[in-house]
Amino acid sequence: MVEILKQYLPLCWYEHQPLELTRSSSFFKKNLLFYFVIEYFMQANMTDDPFESFTEVSVQIILALIFIGLLLRLNKSLYAYLQVTTAILVTSNAIALFVVPVLIWLTVDEDILSYYCLGLLFLWELTVIGYIFKRSLQVNTAASVVVAFLYFIITYLGAFALGQM
Q1: 76: DSSP letter
Q2: 63-81 as b/e, with b when 16 or more CB fall inside 10 Å?
Q3: Does the pTM exceed 0.90?
Q4: Could you give the angle at which helices 112-137 and 81-109 cross, rounded to 10 degrees?
Q5: CB of 21 within 8 A of CB of 7?
Q6: Is residue 19 within 8 Å of residue 126, measured between CB atoms?
Q7: For a Cys staple, 130 with which of 31, 58, 76, 148, CB 3.0–4.6 Å?
Q8: In this predicted model, what pLDDT tens digit does every residue of 78-121 receive, in sequence order?
Q9: How far apart are CA 19 and CA 3, in angstroms?
């Protein structure tokens, strides 16, 4: 598992080709679970209702998995679903490890610098996901940034909107 992780982590620094990475359903499942736990922790930090947090994170994950699947299907590259989804999960998990202390800092102190750090971390995640889509879909940079924005809008805002119903 550590060897596979070493293959995926360089994506955070815009290195490697996601389609050439090792395909492992076990590694995917472990990252999906870790993603759920980390996202749940962050969501529970923002709301007081653990059930609402659970529901919103579950919907967010379902929307993300569907979005990636539809995108790859439209691009006729559904064969790479496991690698691309794992790449997005691993990079999101790695960046989330930096987000959690910043969120704690923000909750405790509400310092303006913590908001800037959170913004920079969001930008980093957006560009990394854009890079993964660029390499996976073989599109230009502008198109990959648009797809990354759509990914965030559909998964995060979509889950929030559905949670409000």
Answers
A1: T
A2: bbbebbeebbeebebeebb
A3: yes
A4: 180
A5: yes
A6: no
A7: 148
A8: 999 999 999 999 999 999 999 999 988 888 888 899 899 999 99
A9: 17
